[in-house]
Amino acid sequence: MAPKLPDSVEELRAAGNQSFRNGQYAEASALYGRALQLLQARGSADPEEESVLYSNRAACHLKDGNCTDCIKDCTSALALVPFSMKPLLRRASAYEALEKYPQAYVDYKTVLQIDNSVMSALEGINRMTRALMDSLGPEWRLKLPSVPVVPVSAQKRWNSMPSENHKETVKSKSKETTTTKSRVPSAGDVERAKVLKEEGNELVKKGNHKKAIEKYSESLLFSNLESATYSNRALCHLILKQYKEAVKDCSEALKLDGKNVKAFYRRAQAYKALKDYKSSLADISSLLQIEPRNGPAQKLRQEVNQSLK
């Protein structure tokens, strides 16, 4: 007897996933297509499922180098569930392959509004920035399509997804430490990093700390040798109550400059918020050895001591 062919949306999707894992992208694409036809014929409104099927088929197109159909399927997926991470990343990759750099930049930038730690998007922004600077000149930002504002609901939807959906983010964070630390930046990279850092500083002055984090992250992709960039990003994390991230950035800043007073102070603030009072006091003590009359540090020490009572 011939094996039973999958005849439900769930079975077709599962079979498509298996074919994709086996590198049989054309077969996977056909299975996802049949699942879409069945779902649409059924007439039941399930935008999430339909969006995933379009996104999965787009991945097949991308693997086969069919960027035009990949873009079409990603656009269909996003029409059903706006601001979904995977179709945005896949469409960005397809645009990039077709050298449609402004569109790719917008999609990568949109992903970073949802989760600013996705390394594939940060690296994509890095590549697009270089390409757009070369092709459009110093005024390239003025010539881009507008970047859509991601609503808070979309960000919350991503943050509440099961942990397996965050594999991209986990990979990206470990990759950031390996790729940036192993590369010696060129003079041009250092200059670009400086420009991006200054853009981040301007955003901080305007109170736009989330976008400032994106700028500092872009800057660190070009050059990760500037202690102040880490301590500036730490300030943004502090204000956004992302205390563990603030601690990490301050620690990186202090590896580069062991006398970075702002890094000691901000890490002490973060430790205090995390109720790690011992570590907070240790950082305040280190800071006061460098600047014995630092008023904010003395005040923070009093606050931490009060918390210990």
How would you portray this structure in words?
With 309 residues, this protein is mainly alpha-helical. Helix content is 75%, strand content 0%. The chain has 16 helices and no strands. It has helices spanning 9-21, 25-42, 47-63, 67-80, 85-97, 101-114, 119-136, 152-159, 167-181, 187-205, 209-222, 227-239, 243-256, 261-273, 277-290, 295-308. Helix 1 runs antiparallel to helix 2. The protein is elongated and about 75 Å long. The termini are far apart. The model is unreliable at 162-182 (pLDDT under 50).
Report the β-strand fraction as a percent range: under 5%
Low-confidence stretches: 162-182
- Cα-based radius of gyration, to the nearest Å: 23 Å
Biggest sheet character: none
- What best-fitting shape do the alpha-carbon axes yield? elongated
Number of helices: 16
Question: N-to-C SSE series?
Answer: HHHHHHHHHHHHHHHH
Output mean pLDDT: 85
Distance between the termini: 77 Å
Number of strands: 0
What class, by secondary structure content? mainly alpha
Helix content: over 70%
Could you list some keywords that capture this structure?
75% helix, 16 helices, mainly alpha, 309 residues
Would you summarize the structure shown here?
By secondary structure, the chain is mainly α. It has 16 helices and no strands.
List the helices and strands and how they pair.
Layout (H helix, E strand, L loop, with lengths): L8 H13 L3 H18 L4 H17 L3 H14 L4 H13 L3 H14 L4 H18 L15 H8 L7 H15 L5 H19 L3 H14 L4 H13 L3 H14 L4 H13 L3 H14 L4 H14 L1
Helix pairs in contact: 1-2, 2-3, 3-4, 3-5, 4-5, 5-6, 5-7, 6-7, 7-11, 10-11, 11-12, 12-13, 12-14, 13-14, 14-15, 14-16, 15-16
